[in-house]
Amino acid sequence: MITKMTKYSFILLSGEEETFLKKLQETGVVDITRSKKPVDAASSAMLEKAGEIKKAISLLKKTDYSKDDDCQAIMEAAESARIPEDAVSASIATVAELEKLKLRLDQMSKETGERLPWGDFNPADIRKLEDSGYVVRWYKTARKKFRKEWAEDHALQVVEDDGSNVWFVTVAGKDEDYSFPVPEMSAPEGNWKESKAETERIEKLIIQEKGQLLKMKDCIPQLQKAYDRELCDLDLYLADASKELAAENMVTVFTGFAPTEDDERLCREFDAMDMAYVKETAVEEDNPPIKLKNNWFTRQFEVLTGMYGMPVYSEFDPTPILGPFFLLFFALCMGDAGYGILLILIGQFLKKSQGSMAKLGPLVTILGTGCIFVGIILGTFFGINIAETPWVPEWLKKCMITGEVAGYSAQMVLAVGIGIFHICLAMTIKAICYTKRFGFKENISTWAWLILIIGGIITAGMALLGVISEPVTKWTVIVLGIVSGLGIYIFNTPGRNPLINVGAGLWDTYNMATGLLGDVLSYIRLYALGLAGGMLGGAFNNLGMMVHDGIPVPGLDWLGFAVIVLLGHALNLAMSCLGAFVHPLRLTFVEYFKNSGYEGRGTAYRPLTGQAE
User: Fold this and answer.
1) Band of the pLDDT at 366, cuts 50, 70, 90?
2) How far is 291 from 329, CA to CA, in rounded Å?
3) pLDDT band at 328 (very low <50, low <70, confident <90, very high)
4) How far is CA 472 from CA 400, 452, 457, 459, 469, in A?
């Protein structure tokens, strides 16, 4: 199947490209292209505005007070908050104000702690003393350094003693000669209750701001649309901008594609890079790269799909059909169970090798396994006709396809039958996929031909087997002819002149009749190649026996036999593999893909990674 893709558009200022690409390599999943665009004052303003919106979105997404100690109060504040018209500026301003309030709260919390030992004094009383000509001095010292004798020489009052420190004040006249053994500290700006009240006020303001920010989270979808719209407008503006601006006024626009399943992780990483980007679902018009996603078995045949061409985004992945049929065709062309064993051994050797050849190991092993089963069904083992060999069990011989059907080789009839089924399957896939892509109205003739051909084959088969009677067969053929005839000749292009439709239908009939006949006969090569390989293998066996019988020296006769058989079967294996690879590809790329409507004009998905290709 084709992996769903997401399109990313990145806009970077000149000089940021190298850093961006290095970071993008670390993700390892983005298939990227880029183009340079001119930037002027207008586009710079648009880019700046998009950056502000992105910053607002990022701030709001991070807003979460579910674990806050004041969660309930914040929720209540959010309910009563109003969403401002300019959510972008408001969110940025709110966050800035929130940071200021938090800083102020930290300062007041520290100040409250410093004022707490001094208690709830009245600053007015202190000012009265100073107006009367006295000076109040404030001290803090360690408990072990404090001396009670100080009170004998100074008007001293202990305010707080917590066992570790002592807070005290002294009062002396302004004109009095004054000295004290402990350094004086700054007087508190206010009493403890004032600072506590200010702290509580700031806490309430913080709750209000948090509630406001939480309320504005509802604006995220709206802001996201505005962000996408701003970048889309910028992209259009850059596309039409003058190309005569100075080189230093350039930005780089990157377009990348990545699997949709990686969206969440990539968005987190892109947000951490602090870049402007647009994310949207990829569509066929974007021509996204194609990444195939299949199970282990089917994945081995993706290389064959790539040889023809990757599907476009709206097409179907042909690999799940290509894989089993290519395996069957390859095995039929090889037609020898013994060669299948050799292919498995070669596949295991390739798996242990280094480089690109190791990737072919599983595929060769699969093909060899198929050759064993098909070779047994065809009755050939290293050129030996095991259907006529006495040491082969009778139950196994019953599984082999031998003899004739209606005067033709049963194996040739099997090859033609497989070809008919393969082409019918291709036509069915074409009808379904084309209807999905272009609509039923545009594919009436495709369905008509499908009904005529498959319906005719089923009807003929049931009639030959005696499942339906002659009158039923007659009326079934008539109904199929009428229904398909209307679709082929009258309604093949609705809305067009009926005479033109009839002419187009006749031309289509000529092409279908000659094309389908040639396509079906092409599958006889499956029988011919398998037969030729088996006969050539048998010829080398006979030649080896002739050499064995013609050498009278014991031991040397078997050496000559071994040389002829080994070299002969090695040559036959090489030629058979070549034919078994090329001709199934031809049947797939020509007969099947033509009748299935497969185009193969897509580009392969090649993400930017830090590893060498």
Assistant:
1) very high
2) 26
3) very high
4) 35, 16, 15, 9, 5
Could you tell me where the beta strands, DSSP code E, fall in 218-361? 250-259, 276-281
Reference 159, options 169, 149, 151, 150; nearest CA is 169
Structural contact between residues 566 and 370, judged by C-beta atoms closer than 8 angstroms? no
Beta bridge pairs of residue 138: 169, 185
Selection from 338, 392, 389, 380 nearest residue 530 by Cα: 380
Q: Residue 246 pLDDT more than 60?
A: no
Q: How far apart are CA 235 and CA 280, in angstroms?
A: 14
Percent helix / strand / coil, the chain, rounded to 5: 65, 10, 25
The label of the residue with tokens 């005696």 reads 466
Please indicate whether residue 219 or residue 37 has the higher confidence score (pLDDT).
Answer: 219
| Whether the predicted pLDDT of 270 surpasses 60 | yes
| Alpha carbon separation from 136 to 128, 192, 462, 470 (Å, rounded) | 11, 18, 118, 126
Q: Quote the CA–CA distance of 106 and 195 in Å, as a whole number.
A: 12
Q: What is the rounded distance in angstroms from the CA atom of residue 537 to the CA atom of residue 340?
A: 14
- Does pTM surpass 0.90? no
Model pLDDT, residue 468: 84
Question: DSSP states of 386-445 as a string?
Answer: GGG-TTS-HHHHTTS--SEETTEEHHHHHHHHHHHHHHHHHHHHHHHHHHHHH-GGGGHH
